[in-house]
């Protein structure tokens, strides 16, 4: 079953003539890890907001776990959608509403009127899954960027979503913080079967995704595996994307007489290939 | 610089006062303030002092930290003192020291100064032992009955809690903007008051813009987490009013009674001035 289905979804910001998203159609499998790539202004974040029903498409439909966001314009269905599709935003400083981690994590469950006993279970689960138990009583403002984003994920997880959308959530973090967040997200997808949609402009995050989508000027420019994507250099250039670091290095090695071959995306793959080459020499 | 600033002056500890219900502490402070204002003589103030010292002792907060709060308003206290000395209406038999300064005037001025000092010290015991968050919770709970007359208690509490959350973030940002403007040659230190205030405009404008941007994003984040106002919200943290809080309130009742007794039976006590 598809977790998310865009059918000819078009969105214009009020007052703008040109649509940010133009008749966008694609679907995301349940339980998969997908990345959405594209340069600034390509409509990535708008697509994320459509999934969460923060905005509604002007034309076409966005269906989340069988629920059409257009029909959920108000009322309980809207909260069902927001509950099942949690969203983590870009700026780690602009997502927590309470000063203390625990108080912030309970915000979502409190909003939907959950009984206290259940909230207690949810906090325990959310903090455990994001490895933030030790910050439970800490001040949000004292945490690092990566820790804040993990708390933001915990806040989303407390609502037990089936889908988690990261809207450039790693872009303001240092490499260590980015690693922390991605590890948590991977674990959520693998161990809890949560569908993850990672909107990013870091190509390295795309290498081990199940599926990659590329947006250009509000239209879908590519859908397929990361391997297929990074094999198409012309497309990458046209969409303003780069190769992942390891792939870039592999390309240069190939050009300079070290035949590591095509299709290398990660550091691990490259290391393995190089070791192989050294042994055969 | 600014990022070191923490709102309030919370002193972390596990003392009995720290563990008290914030509602009880708020009520207690109100009663204490009433008592300080009711006191008409030094005996009454002495009763208040005993209570204050008890509170400080039980809170395990260093007296130094409590006194620090007085330091902030030293000018106000001196001002009150001088005014009270100068505008004291002399009675018959008052000892004039010089000009219009009388011994009785000095005594009465000290009385008013002490009143302010006790007031500030009492309030600071509350802020030293209660986190802003639980203070907000306490206020929300105490004001809850006002919701009946459609007073938006919950929304106010949420606004307060978000403000508290954002203070360190905005302080950090102010710090960053100041440094950025300094790097561009802005001068915040020289000139008179007016030109220094003017120099702050290039700091306040970007700060305001960024605050609006943050508010916008925070609003989205709240929406995404199913915020829909107070209608069906539950509250995870429940405040617990324990026997200890009741005991403290009884002691405060005794304080009030003590001050009133001192006022009523003042004629039985030796005259101090």
* Spatial extent as radius of gyration of chain A: 20 Å
Give, in order, the helices and strands of chain B: HHHHEEHHHHHH
Helix count from the secondary structure assignment of chain B: 10
Overall shape of chain B: it is flat
- In terms of DSSP E residues, the strand content of chain A is 15-25%
The computed structural class of chain B is: mainly alpha
The pair of chains with the biggest contact is:
A-B, 41 and 30 residues
Q: Proportion of β residues of chain B?
A: under 5%
Structural class of chain A: alpha/beta
Text of the CATH class of the largest domain in chain A: Alpha Beta
Looking at this structure, what is the CATH superfamily of the largest domain in chain A?
P-loop containing nucleotide triphosphate hydrolases
Please state the overall shape of chain A, judged from the principal axes of the Cα atoms.
Answer: globular
Q: How many individual β-strands of chain A? A: 10
Q: Identify low-pLDDT runs of chain A.
A: none
Number of continuous helical runs of chain A: 11
Overall tally of domains of chain A:
2
Describe this structure in words.
- The complex is a heterodimer of chains A (about 280) and B (about 270).
- Chain A is an alpha/beta fold.
- Chain A folds into two domains: about 1-240, 3-Layer(aba) Sandwich (Rossmann fold), CATH 3.40.50; about 245-280, no CATH class.
- Helix content of chain A is about 40%, strand content about 20%.
- Chain A is built from eleven helices and ten strands.
- Chain A has helices spanning about 45-50, 75-85, 100-105, 105-110, 115-130, 145-155, 175-190, 225-230, 235-240, 245-255, 265-280; strands at about 1-10, 20-30, 35, 60-65, 65-70, 85-90, 165, 195-200, 210-215, 220-225.
- In chain A, the strands form two sheets. Chain A has a six-stranded mixed beta sheet, sandwiched between helices. A four-stranded antiparallel beta sheet of chain A has the order 2-1-4-5, covered by helices on one side.
- In chain A, helix 5 (about 115-130) packs across helix 6 and helix 6 (about 145-155) runs parallel beside helix 7.
- Chain A is globular.
- A two-stranded antiparallel sheet of chain B has the order 1-2.
- In chain B, a hairpin with a 2-residue loop joins strand 1 and strand 2.
- Residues about 1-5 of chain B have low confidence and may be disordered.
- Chain B has helices spanning about 20-40, 40-60, 65-70, 75-85, 105-130, 130-145, 155-185, 195-200, 200-225, 245-265; strands spanning about 95-100, 100.
- Chain B has about 270 residues and is mostly helical.
- Chain B has a domain at about 10-140 and about 240-270.
- In chain B, helix 1 crosses helix 6 (about 130-145), helix 2 (about 40-60) runs parallel beside helix 5 (about 105-130) and helix 4 (about 75-85) runs antiparallel to helix 5 (about 105-130).
- The interface of A and B includes residues 49, 87 and 152 of A.
